[in-house]
Amino acid sequence: MEMPKANQMIIDAKPSIVAGLAQLLPKDAVLHYLNDTRPYECDALAAYACQPLAVVLPRTTEQVAAVLRFCHAHAIPVVPRGAGTSLAGGSLPTADSVVLSVARMVDVLETDYPNRFIRVQTGRTNVSVTAAVEDEGFFYAPDPSSQLACAIAGNIAMNSGGAHCLKYGVTTNNLLGVTLVQMDGTIIQIGGAYMDSGGLDLLGLICGSEGQLGIVTEATLRILPKPEGARPVLIGFDANEVAGACVSDIIKAGILPVAIEFMDRPCIVATEDFAKAGYPDCEALLIVEVEGSDNEIDLQLALIKEIAMRHNPVAFRESKSAEESQKIWLGRKSAFGAMGNIADYMCLDGTIPVSALPLVLRRIGELSQHYGLGVANVFHAGDGNMHPLILYNANKPGDLELCEAFGNDILRLCVEVGGCLTGEHGVGVEKRDLMTVQFAPADLEAQLNVKDVFDPKWLLNAAKVFPLDVSASRRATSV
Ligand SMILES: Cc1cc2nc3c(=O)[nH]c(=O)nc-3n(C[C@H](O)[C@H](O)[C@H](O)COP(=O)(O)OP(=O)(O)OC[C@H]3O[C@@H](n4cnc5c(N)ncnc54)[C@H](O)[C@@H]3O)c2cc1C
Description:
By secondary structure, this protein is α+β, with helices and mostly antiparallel strands. It is 37% helix and 19% strand.
C-alpha cells in the first residue's frame, strides 16, 4: 500500500504550526511530542502506520472550525478521527497532517422521547448513545461489533452497520441530521429532527463520505422503543455452502430476522478457545435472532426451524433464557478478538447478493489454498456483508503482500458476482486502489467533482478512497 510523499515544507514548519494551533485550543488539546502522538499513528488496520505532524483534541464545534480555518489558510492536510477503530485505514495519518480527533466531544445535547431522537456530539461512543436512553425504554439501532469503542463520528463517516442492521438498516437509515464543519471553517446544518427535508439530499452524501467532505461534530440520531422480546437460535452445519444455502432460503421465504450471523470452523474453534461460548463442533454455524412478542417469536422461529431442517443441520439450539441468549452471542461478539489472539489478520468487508453466498464461500476456500494463507469467515450473512479474516504473519517477509493480493482477489470476486467493495467498513486506503474495479472513469470523476466542491484544496483525508493516480492532479494543487 502506497501513501503520497509528505510535503517537507509543512514538516519543516511544525514548530510554527504547533504554535498556531496552541493559540486556538487549550494547552492540553494540542499533542506534538512523538510519545503523545504515537497512539494516533494507525487505526485498527494496524499493518499501516505513520506518525502525524500533530494531534488536536477540540471540545466544541467552534474549536473545530477554528482549527480547520487555520489549516485551510496554511494548506495543512487534516485527517479526521473518531476512536480510530477503522478497519480500512480511514484514519491513518500522513507525516504532514494534523489529526483532528473528536474524542473529547462526548456530550448528549438533547433527548426527545416523544419525537424519538437524540442529539449528541460525535465523539460519543456508539454504545453510550443507547446507554443514554435505555432507562426510558429506547435504543439506538446500528450496533457495530466495535460499539464499545467506536464513535458516532466514525459510524457516520463509514456508514457503519452491525449484526442487527438486517432489520433496522445501517447508520444512514438512523441518521436525521448533522452539524458539519467544512475545510474552510464554515459551519453548516444538514437535516434535522425530522424525517426528510427539502433540497438536495446532502445528508445522504455526508453519511459514508469517509472524512472527505467535512468534519461532523454533532449528530441527530433516531432512537427506537426497545422490542418486546428477542430470541436467537444457533444452527450448526457440516459445510459452509450448506449454511450459505440456508441463509439464502430464509431470506427468500420473506422472513425478516433482526440478525443472521455466520461463522466458519476456523472462527468457531478460535472463539471457543477464547470465549468458551459452548458452540457445537461443526463446519459452520448461523446465529439467527428474531424479535417481537412471544407469539411472534414462536411463529418466526418455527418457520426458520422448518427451513433449517431441510438442510440437515448438525445442531439446532433455541435460547430459552436471557443467559442462554447472551452465551449464543458471546462467541460472535468475541470473534475478532479471538482471531487476533492466534494470528495477525486482515479483516475484509465486501458485499454480495445473498444467493451468491455458497459460490463465494467455495471460491474463498480455493483462493486460501492458492495463496497458502488461512482464512476465517465471520459475517452478517443476512444482508450479504462478508468479513473474511485473512491470517498472516506480520513478521514474515512477503506475507503482508500475499495477504493484500488474496484480499484483492476476494473483493474482485464480490464485484464479479454483482456485489460491491464494501458493506460497512468503507474504502479508506485498504480498498482505494480497487475503486476502478467497481466504478467506470466517469463514475469516479463524478465523485471527485463532489469533493472538489466541499474541499477544493484537497486537504481533508486526501490520500483515501480514490486511487492515488486518479486523484493525483487534484492533490498536486494542494502542495
Ligand atoms: C473489532 C472490530 C469490530 C468491528 N465491527 C464493525 C461492525 O460490526 N460494523 C462496522 O460497520 N464496522 C465495524 N468495525 C469498523 C469500525 O469500528 C467502524 O468503521 C467505525 O464506525 C469507526 O469508528 P471510529 O470512531 O473508530 O472512526 P475512525 O477509525 O476514527 O475513523 C473512521 C473514518 O471516519 C472519518 N472520521 C472520523 N471522525 C470524523 C468526523 N468527525 N467527521 C468526518 N469524518 C470523520 C475518519 O477520517 C475515517 O475515514 C469494527 C472494527 C473493529 C476493530
